[in-house]
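Teaching assistant here, posting this on the class forum so everyone can see the example we discussed in section. The complex has two components, and the goal was to see what a joint structure prediction looks like when all of them are supplied at once.
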Amino acid sequence: MAKLLIRNGRVIDPASRRDEIADVLIENGFIAAAGPNLDTTGAEQFDASGMVVAPGFIDMHTHLREPGFEHAETIESGSRAAAAGGFTSVCAMPNTAPVNDNATVTRYIIERARHSAVVNVFPIGAITKDSAGEQLANIGSMKEAGIVAISDDGRPVMNARVMRRAMEFAHAFSLPVIDHCEDLHLSAGGDMNEGLESVRRGLRGIPAASEDVMVARDILLAGHTGAHFHVAHLSTQNAASMVQAARERGLAVTAEVTPHHFSLSDADTPPYDSNYKMKPPLRSRADVAAVVDGVANGAVSAIATDHAPHAGSEKMQEFERCPFGIIGLETAIGLSLECLVHTGKISLNRMVELFTAGPARILNLDRGTLAVGVRADVTIFDPELIWTYDVNQSFSKSKNSPFDDHTFRGGPVATVVNGSFAWRR
Amino acid sequence: MSSGLLGIEDLNRSEIEAILTRARDFQSIQHQPVKRLDVLRGRTIVNLFYEASTRTRTSFEIAAKRLGADAVSITASGSSVSKGESLVDTLNTLAAMRPDAIVMRHSASGAPHFLARHLPTPIINAGDGTHEHPTQALLDARTILDRRGTLEGIRVAIIGDIAHSRVARSNIYLLAKFGADIVLCGPAPLLPPELASIAPGVTLTDDIRDAIRSADVIMMLRVQLERQHEAAFPASEYFQFYGLRLEHLDLAHPDVIVMHPGPINRGREIASEVADSQRSVILNQVENGVAVRMSVLERILSN
């Protein structure tokens, strides 16, 4: 498609400080112009009246499961779910089989994405070989192959010395170090947040302290090494205040939150329902409130889904045997509007920033803006659209969502990737 | 709420009273030469035990038989469980044989609740992980009522590994519904502070003497070393600080009764002299177990 004109929407582009009713013109895959009353000659037109036209949303925390776990998700199916959720870019976590701990796997993911993905896929490399927490992975050559960050997500580096070396090394390659902050000794055996609900249900708890001590450790190491430390799926009150304090001191510390951590507390969960089982676990109401405050006060720089598909049979087990994680790409915009914007906690502008300029800055991506000349990734959403999520209609191969049958106020309408529609409602 | 019995937490006071009252009728049958009734004749009950059990399994089996039902008992070892079949598949297979109820014990908290969402067959929870053991609490209540006549306002001390005890949870939920004063006592790592909020009338102490003072009922819990995933307390010091000894009983109400869900570890959580004393009602609990389970089975299967 040569020319596409997205007409008459509310164009919100925090990176360009633009928030006005305007048109966006796309030519040959790039943003050609943005402003009121653009010339429509020869362009396909999309009427975005009443909708928000934003830079393409970036999910910096996605599990695409390929290679290795294609029964649960593939790069293709995950990318389709992303597009249907309003995302134009996803960052693929490295806990595949094999683990993305070397340039060959990185190139394989990029190659597979080129052939089968409908959105941009940016791989994240492992911190350590096989994410075993011992020897550093081939970080430099993965960077050359195209990774945008390193993380041993789900299998956090317990050895502080290894983490220190990883930060030192990654810093030299301008790669952020994303840590899933969990002290595995403190959390061992836990299935849900430690608190009244875990005690009531007779489930072993995952204490908030298991996250807090690792956030504290990594902030200290980031201060020492100068590296950029990014907190994955921040979920506790203490972690939020530590990140805020570190940022005020000028450290290169950022954090993301997931929609489920700002929308649900442990008290909201039906007992023993594995669609509410994830790491970090859904925390207390006070933690949820602190996470929302963190989004509002700047401690948090991005919203990320931690989309974690698991096959139905894996989730149809005794609660303690079920794997951790839920899918989240298709419900992220709806939940963000519902819990953050419609409640008045943040502006629509801030929400767009958390999905665009926020993650783009963390990952040094040349995306997340509608500035003239950049790749034309555009997310169009309607903040007032009433729709109901039916997980059985999901593009994801997995159906593990706690938000099945939830009716949302606001949701994505169309997703444009590199100038072409990747999805339309 | 399913048509089975998953836990005490979901029952209301009148449902519990109905079970306990009906159990009295079955108590007398235990002393007759012919103990068999015909109320559940032709009904089939499957006892599915994924964890070792002597008393609970036998008690359910006897209860079923004394009601005239056919009971089949299955243990996890020697079944297709050891061939890697999932829990849901095993239960669906058993349910396809059309039993009228499945009595189930499992090491995972919530396993029967999870199955109840996917199976039409009523499920009776015979102990799920560290969550609930509802028939134990019912037989404990029957035993207390036999001695005290009421649960309201009595002071019950529950002592031991509360954190990992399904017996404690079910008893707390039940006693709280009847207005008992519940004191929980144990080593601090086994006594999470949130316990004080799981039901009304619950207080916590880490001093066994405080717990026993003026108690009408002392419930000792087994020190469950198999549930100790870590060294949460120094095991060699347990009896010294949390074991029940004869001299402790002087602090309690003069008519105090000592209970234990069994199997007891003599010299670990309870001194032999206490277990064998006049104050001990441990065997009465076992006896009441059959009557209470008859009451539960009759209630669920005659629906």
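For the discussion questions: Chain B has a mean pLDDT of 93. Chain B has two domains: 4-132+286-301, 134-281. Think about how each of these relates to the inputs above.
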